[in-house]
């Protein structure tokens, strides 16, 4: 091995935050509000939110999908990066979690860009495909139940246009994917990582951002 990834301890991570993050006040407010919500560790970090916003701008994205919204931080980060007519189709099953985000979406002036659908995400995605929306999206962020990531992937691969991007969160799963799997979520993520590595339909990058962020660009376009 000629080059290794820098181990990111708290000190280095804080340096990254201090020297790159420019967080919109509504994002900062939502992050503070989320800290008081159960499972606040599920929220992506501000550095990742800013990175995803940059991806969305680089793509020139207008229509995006989010699978797993929680309190709405990642949806807000993406919505802020979209043009005025841009849209996030935000899929979640929890009113309790997602209601935390709405006042901050409103504060940021992007509430109209986020269409929240409270239903199992697979159902929502299948409905969009049945409605003829294949190829209509530029970007998808997959961050819900890990055992269904592959099902979400197959739907998103149809829903994003050629040249569109699918981002998968938690693909390193605290490093557990590099050890023999002891649980179903780890096994599902290992199988997905293996599949993506071989999948000729996409170009892939597995980044050591957050808890592992895999980017898969649909070939063509
Ligand atoms: N992307 C969010 C963020 O960065 O703040 C975090 C999302 S959190 C890790 C996962 C979310 O997926 C939870 O809010 C949960 O309610 C939702 N979820 C779990 N199973 C789901 C399903 N079958 N369909 C839609 N959402 C689901
Ligand atoms: Ca996540």
Which keywords apply here?
binds calcium ion; alpha/beta; 8 helices; binds S-adenosylmethionine; 221 residues; Rossmann fold; single chain; seven-stranded mixed sheet
Note down, in words, how this protein is organized:
With 221 residues, the chain is of the alpha/beta class. The chain has helices spanning 10-20, 25-34, 46-59, 73-81, 95-107, 121-130, 149-159, 184-198, and strands at 63-67, 87-92, 114-118, 137-142, 160-169, 202-207, 213-218. The protein has one domain (10-218): Rossmann fold (3-Layer(aba) Sandwich). It is built from eight helices and seven strands. Helix 2 packs antiparallel against helix 5 (95-107), helix 3 (46-59) packs parallel to helix 4 (73-81) and helix 6 runs parallel beside helix 7. The longest helix is centred in the last third of the chain and has 15 residues, at 184-198. The termini are far apart. It binds S-adenosylmethionine and calcium ion.
């Amino acid at each position: 091995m000629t080059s290794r990834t820098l181990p990111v301890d708290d000190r280095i991570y804080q340096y990254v935050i201090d020297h790159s993050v420019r967080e919109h006040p509504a994002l900062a407010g939502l992050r503070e509000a989320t800290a008081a919500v159960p499972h606040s560790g599920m929220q992506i970090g501000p550095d990742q939110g800013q990175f995803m916003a940059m991806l969305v701008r680089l793509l020139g994205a207008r229509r995006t999908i989010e699978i797993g919204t929680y309190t709405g931080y990642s949806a807000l980060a993406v919505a802020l990066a979209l043009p005025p007519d841009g849209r996030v189709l935000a899929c979640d099953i929890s009113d309790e979690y997602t209601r935390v985000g709405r006042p901050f979406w409103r504060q940021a002036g992007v509430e109209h860009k986020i269409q929240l659908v409270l239903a199992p995400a697979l159902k929502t995605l299948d409905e969009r495909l049945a409605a003829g929306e294949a190829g209509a999206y530029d970007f998808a962020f997959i961050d819900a139940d890990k055992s269904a990531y592959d099902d979400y992937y197959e739907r998103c691969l149809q829903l994003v246009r050629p040249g569109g991007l699918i981002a998968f969160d938690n693909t390193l799963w605290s490093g557990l994917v590099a050890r023999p799997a002891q649980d179903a979520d780890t096994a599902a993520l290992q199988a997905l990582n293996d599949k993506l590595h071989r999948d000729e339909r996409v170009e892939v990058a597995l980044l050591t951002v957050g808890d592992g962020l895999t980017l898969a660009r649909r070939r063509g376009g």
